[in-house]
Amino acid sequence: xxxxxxxxxxxxxxxxxxxxxxxxxxxxxxxxxxxxxxxxxxxxxxxxxxxxxxxxxxxxxxxxxxxxxxxxxxxxxxxxxxxxxxxxxxxxxxxxxxxxxxxxxxxxxxxxxxxxxxxxxxxxxxxxxxxxxxxxxxxxxxxxxxxxxxxxxxxxxxxxxxxxxxxxxxxxxxxxxxxxxxxxxxxxxxxxxxxxxxxxxxxxxxxxxxxxxxxxxxxxxxxxxxxxxxxxxxxxxxxxxxxxxxxxxxxxxxxxxxxxxxxxxxxxxxxxxxxxxxxxxxxxxxxxxxxxxxxxxxxxxxxxxxxxxxxxxxxxxxxxxxxxxxxxxxxxxxxxxxxxxxxxxxxxxxxxxxxxxxxxxxxxxxxxxxxxxxxxxxxxxxxxxxxxxxxxxxxxxxxxxxxxxxxxxxxxxxxxxxxxxxxxxxxxxxxxxxxxxxxxxxx
Length: 443
Ligand SMILES: Cc1ncc(COP(=O)(O)O)c(C=O)c1O
Description:
Layout: H1 3-19, H2 23-33, H3 38-45, H4 49-56, H5 66-84, H6 92-100, H7 127-138, E1 146-148, H8 150-156, E2 159-164, H9 174-188, E3 195-198, H10 202-213, E4 218-222, H11 228-236, E5 240-243, H12 248-262, E6 265-266, H13 272-288, E7 294-298, H14 303-314, E8 320-326, H15 331-338, H16 361-370, E9 373-377, H17 379-393, H18 403-410, H19 412-415, E10 419-424, H20 431-440
Parallel strand pairs: 2-10, 3-4, 3-6, 4-5, 7-8, 7-10, 8-9
Antiparallel strand pairs: 1-2
Helix pairs in contact: 2-5, 5-6, 7-13, 9-10, 9-13, 10-11, 13-14, 14-16, 15-16, 17-18
The chain binds pyridoxal-5'-phosphate.
C-alpha cells in the first residue's frame, strides 16, 4: 500500500470510530436507502460541500462542526431503519427536515414537507429506537408509578390515573429526554468538549443531571434574576452556571456565542432525541394502564405531547392526546388552530414550564396531525388545579405539573366517566409561588 493510501485507510478507520462507519460507506447507504446524494447530504448536515467532500475522500477525519457530526449520525441511523423496514419511506421528507433542523437553537423553517396526508408521530421513533431509549434512560431512572386517587376521581368525574413523573430524579419528566440526548451524543460524538443550553428551569436540570451521569461537561446560561432555587439545583448537579443578560433571549444569544467560541454543542429545547427519551414514560404508562381514553399533557416546547402522540401511534392505539396550555402563553393553541406556527409577543404566565412564545415548527406539525385538541386554561384554573392536586394526592405539583388536571377539569363534561390519564410532569415549584397558591386556596 502506498503511503497516501495507508494514510487514507487510517483516516477511514478513525472515521469509523467517530461516526460508526467510514463516511464513504455512510454516504453509500444514505444514497441507497434515503435517496439523496452526497451534495444534498452535506446540505442536510449543515456543512459546506468542499469540507464534506474532503471527509468523504478520506483526506480528513472530522467535519468541523459538532452539530454536523450529530446530524450525520442521525442520517446513518435513519438509513439503517429504512433498510431494516423499521422506518417508513413516507417519512423521508419529514425526517430529513427534522435532521436538518436538529441540534441548533437558530430559528428554523421546515425545508421539506411530508408528501400526501399529514402523518403524526415522530419520524425517528421506531419500536427499536424506543426500546433503545428505554435501555439508556432505564439505567438512571426507574419506571414512575401511575396511580388512581379516589379523591381526585370524585373531582374529575372520570377514572383518573396520574402518571407521577414528579417522582423522577430532578423532580420532572425532562430528565428522560436529557439522559437519552446525552447518551446518544456519546454514541455519535464521543470527543465532544461539552454541551451548552440557555434555560430557566427543568430542561437545564435535566441536562445537568445527564451530563454528570455521562461525564460530559454542561454549561447553562440563565438570565439575571432567574430563580435562585433553580440555579442552586443546576449547580448542585454539576453544571457550570453562567448568569448573563436581562432576559431569556439575551441568555440564549450569549449561549450561542459561547458555543461557537468554545466548540460546545448547543442543545435545543425540542429535538427528536429529547422526544425519544420522554417517550419512555408514555410507553410505561400504556403498559401499566390499558385502553386509556384520553391523555392530558401540558405543552411547553412540545416534547411531552409529541412523545405521547408518537408512542400512541407506534402501539396502534386510539387514545386521544389532549394538550394543555396557559391562556397567557397560548402559542401552541393558536398554532394548532392555524395549522402552522404562531408566535405570541408575550408568554406572561406563572406556569413557567409552559411559558413559550415561539413554537417549534416540527412540533406544531406533529401536534396538529396527532393531537385531538389543545385546551387553554386561565391562571386561576391553573392555580386551583395546583391546590386540588396537592389536596387529593399530597404530591406537590409545580404549576405546569398540574396543568393536565386543569385541562381535564376545563372539559369535565366532555370526558365524564372515561378513563383518563393526567401527566404530573414535575414538582419543582419555587417557594413564593407555592406559598401564594396554597394560601389562596387553603379553604
Ligand atoms: C414541569 C414541566 N411540565 C411541562 C413542561 C412542558 O414540556 P415540553 O416542553 O416538553 O412541552 C415543562 C417544560 O420544561 C416542564 O418543566
